[in-house]
Structures are given as structure tokens and as C-alpha cells.
Specification:
The complex is a heterodimer of chains A (83) and B (368).
Chain A: H1 3-17, H2 32-36, H3 40-54, H4 69-80
Chain B: E1 10-16, E2 23-24, E3 29-35, E4 38-43, E5 48-53, E6 60-62, E7 68-72, H1 93-102, H2 120-129, H3 138-145, H4 149-166, E8 169-177, H5 179-191, H6 200-214, E9 220-223, E10 226-229, E11 235-237, E12 239-240, E13 246-247, E14 250-251, H7 259-275, E15 278-279, H8 280-284, E16 288-292, E17 311-315, E18 319-325, E19 328-342, H9 348-362
Parallel strand pairs in B: 4-15, 11-16, 16-17
Antiparallel strand pairs in B: 1-3, 1-6, 2-5, 3-4, 5-7, 8-19, 9-10, 11-14, 12-13, 17-19, 18-19
Helix pairs in contact in B: 1-2, 1-3, 6-7, 6-9
Classes of the chains: A mainly alpha (83), B alpha+beta (368).
């Protein structure tokens, strides 16, 4: 997937959890939990959704690297290219 | 019409899931009702055959009103009953919501999705062709569709005001070292696929459920002028809703379920609390409530008891703080646990034993 496709995927998965989000106003480098008022159940569902969408295993210890929109794209792009 | 929250006085019948002649057994969902907690699935208390439906979809009736007549098992089913087969409706939450917005009775819609599931398109189609005879004006139907946050706030306010008026609260707090619990959870989750990972919240729920077995007076309901202890431990879990407001549906028999089972139940509750479809028993059965504002970053929360319960347990967020272990200062993940208790039923001594039990149980997470 290209970075744009990954970004669109991340936003789509977020939209399933927080339907009211406005993708245009998401700050790429501000924590998603703060911007979208996500709780731990939302974060878990976000990781489940990402895993289902891109087929990449995301260990719990990597969650901090996926705290922002930009972080998610970086992380998934790096994993997508393979080890 | 069941009473689904402490100050609920009326509810709107949205749809019937069973029809006259259908056999029902205890726990089956028979109808959907719109309340200030959103759309609720109403369960039947007895097993038998639906004999007659008395309230039409769209009608608002007071709590206690008879919605339908059920001939209990042991008596023969009425011969005139049509042999209807209605399984639980296969419908997505989005389609269900749309059905309510458009005033469509989903039970009468033919699904075209996978396995006959009803899709949003089916609802839209049904709305387009449905006769313009609604049980209530479309404007009123639309008004009840979205979760009415103002109404929910009034209900919460009424319940909490009643609690503060009637229940002499006492409050206790203690700090719990969460190192073992968090380390154990990390090990577990490292071995698990993402969809099967546990949140530390389920450890807290399980520890609470076991701790009340040691101090059973906290797991009780105030009835009339005395507390009635509950044999079953149904832990209410406070869940905040994105639109505002909160509900605290029950995880039934939390003391007897595995962490995995509790986690599945917890996920289901949160999902249904936010998209509709909580069951009436989940809203009315809690025997003690757990609230955790940890996500919002507070370290301590003292809950207000939800009547007729007699205790509420609060958990703050887990924070790294200096802590003394064997005379040395070390960094540890700490959590403040609190108890708000009803002084008519327990006192600080018993409450303290409960919090000590929670602490002790969380030190051996593998046994939970």
C-alpha cells in the first residue's frame, strides 16, 4: 500500500470507532486519544481494525508508536515493506 | 414496560421481535424499547407462548404497563395462533438505527444481505414504500431516534440526587501496586492475537467480583428499609457514551467467569452501549458498580452509589510513582482504588477489608 492508501485506511478504521470524526481536521502529529477522546476499548478496537485491514500483526508494546495519525502511517509503511 | 433505570417513568415501544403464537423462553428478547439509555432489548421473564400484544410500535406507555400477554408453559398454546417463525432479527446496528429514524418496523422488512440480514438499503426501500400510517407523526418518531442526551442528563441527575439525598455515603481510598498485574497482563497479551488481548479493566472487574464474596454486604440491593444481599455478583460497568452521558450495564456472574469470557462480555457491552441493543436485564441487574475514569487521566474517582445498590468501586489511572519496597524507593505503577459505601449497610471497617481484598487479589493476577 502507498502511504496515501495507508492514511486513508487508518482514517476509515478510526471512523468505525468515532463516527463523528472529521478527517480533514485531524492533526497528523497530535495524539489520536486526545483528539478523538478514545478510551482503552476504542484503542483496542482500533488495533483490531488495523490488523484486519492491513494484515499486519501489531504487538501491544508497539502501541505507543501508533499514537498519532502520522505515527500509524510510518509504522504500517515500515511493516508493510517487510522486515 | 420494565423499569430500566432508577428514575424511568415511561418508555416507547419501537418494535416487536415476537408475534402472537410464538413460543418464548425466559431471557428471549421479545421487544425493543426506546429509553433515555437508547434502544434496549426487552427480555421475557417467563417461558410460554405469546398470546396477545397490547401495545403497538410507536406508543409510549408508563413503566409497569402491560405490553403483551404470555401464556405460561404448562398451559396449551392457543389453537388459533398462527404458526409464525421469527428468529432474532439479523440486522446491523446502523440499519437498526436507520429503521428507527425512518419509522420502519424492521421485523416486517425482508433482508437481502448475507443470510437474509437486513441492510440499510432494505430499510430505505421499506421506508420508501411504507404506507403513510404511522403510530405517531414522523417528526416525533425522528425526535426519539437519536439518543436524547438532555433526557439522559435529567435521568442521571434524578438518580444521583436521589442517591445523595437518601444514601449516607462514606468514602475510602487506598493505593495499589499494579506491577505484578500489569507485568502479567503484558506477558499474556504478547502471546495473544490482537483481537484476544485483555484490558486491565477486566482484572479490576474480576478482583472486585471476588472481593465482594469476602464482604458480601457490599453486594446487595436496598429494598424498602433494609439491604437484601445478592447471591449472584453482577458487576455494573460505567461506560461513557460518545454523545455524552453514561450507562452502567451489568456483566452477569462476573465472579464465575474466566477473564477471557469477561473480556468478551465487556467488549460486547461497550459496543452495544454505544450502538444500541443493551438488554433489559443488563440495565436492571447490577448488584455493585465499578467506575474507572482512568482513561481521562484522573488518579482518583469517588463514585456516587447508583440506587438501589449499596456500593460503588472506583479505579483511577495507573501512574508511575516512587514507592517503597523493602526499605528502598523504587518506581512502580500505582493505582488508587476507592469505595463509596452506604453507611446504612456497611461501615468503614468492612469497606476497608473489601479494598484490602481487591489489593491482595491483584497481587496474584494469574489466579483471577
Amino acid at each position: 500500500m502507498t502511504r496515501d492508501e495507508l492514511r486513508a485506511t487508518v482514517i476509515r478504521v478510526l471512523g468505525d470507532i468515532a463516527p463523528e470524526i472529521d478527517a480533514g481536521s485531524l492533526e497528523p502529529s497530535v495524539a489520536l486519544r486526545e483528539q478523538l477522546d478514545l478510551d482503552s476499548m476504542d484503542v483496542l478496537n482500533f488495533m483490531v481494525g488495523l490488523h484486519a485491514a492491513v494484515g499486519i500483526d501489531i504487538p501491544e508494546t508497539d502501541y505507543p508508536r501508533l499514537s498519532t495519525l502520522e505515527g500509524c502511517v510510518e509504522y504500517l509503511a515500515a511493516k508493510d515493506r517487510g522486515p | 414496560m420494565p423499569i430500566l433505570s432508577a428514575d424511568m417513568t415511561a418508555g416507547t415501544l419501537i418494535a416487536w421481535r415476537k408475534q402472537p403464537g410464538d413460543a418464548v423462553k425466559r431471557g428471549d428478547v421479545i421487544a425493543e424499547v426506546e429509553t433515555d439509555k437508547g434502544l434496549i432489548d426487552v427480555e421475557v421473564f417467563v417461558s410460554g407462548v405469546v398470546e396477545k400484544i397490547l401495545v403497538r410500535p410507536g406508543a409510549t406507555v408508563p413503566t409497569g404497563a402491560v405490553l403483551a400477554l404470555i401464556k405460561e408453559d404448562g398451559a396449551a398454546a392457543p389453537k388459533s395462533a398462527p404458526p409464525l417463525q421469527t428468529d432474532r432479527l439479523r440486522i446491523s446496528p446502523a440499519a437498526r438505527k436507520l429503521a428507527v429514524e425512518l419509522g420502519v418496523d424492521a421485523a416486517n422488512v425482508q433482508g437481502t444481505g448475507a443470510d437474509g440480514a437486513i441492510t440499510r438499503e432494505d430499510i430505505e426501500h421499506a421506508a420508501a414504500v411504507k404506507p403513510l400510517v404511522a403510530a405517531q407523526p414522523p417528526a416525533a418518531a425522528a425526535a426519539t431516534a437519536a439518543l436524547d442526551v438532555a433526557r439522559m442528563r435529567r435521568t442521571i441527575g434524578a438518580a444521583m440526587a436521589r442517591s445523595k439525598r437518601e444514601i449516607p455515603h462514606y468514602y475510602l481510598a487506598t493505593t495499589i501496586d499494579m506491577q505484578r498485574a500489569m507485568a502479567w497482563l503484558g506477558e499474556q497479551n504478547a502471546k495473544r492475537p490482537v483481537a484476544e488481548r485483555l484490558l486491565y479493566g477486566v482484572l479490576l472487574i474480576k478482583a472486585t467480583a471476588w472481593a465482594v464474596r469476602e464482604v458480601p454486604e457490599l453486594n446487595a440491593l436496598w429494598v424498602g428499609d433494609r439491604a437484601v444481599l445478592s447471591e449472584a455478583v453482577h458487576v455494573g460497568v460505567a461506560i461513557s457514551l460518545r454523545q455524552g452521558g453514561l450507562v452502567a450495564p451489568a456483566l452477569h456472574d462476573a465472579d464465575r467467569r474466566s477473564l477471557d469470557d469477561l473480556m468478551r462480555g465487556f467488549r460486547g457491552l461497550v459496543q452495544r452501549a454505544r450502538s444500541g441493543g443493551l438488554r433489559s436485564s443488563e440495565l436492571s441487574d447490577s448488584t455493585i458498580t465499578v467506575t474507572s475514569l482512568g482513561e481521562q487521566g484522573v488518579e482518583t474517582v469517588f463514585g456516587i452509589i447508583y440506587p438501589p445498590q449499596v456500593a460503588i468501586v472506583g479505579f483511577g489511572k495507573v501512574v508511575e510513582r516512587p514507592w517503597c519496597v523493602d526499605g528502598a524507593i523504587v518506581s512502580r505503577p500505582l493505582m488508587t482504588a476507592t469505595l463509596s459505601g452506604d453507611h446504612r449497610v456497611t461501615d468503614g471497617h468492612r469497606g476497608g477489608l473489601f479494598l484490602a481484598a481487591v489489593d491482595r487479589l491483584l497481587q496474584e493476577p494469574a489466579r483471577l
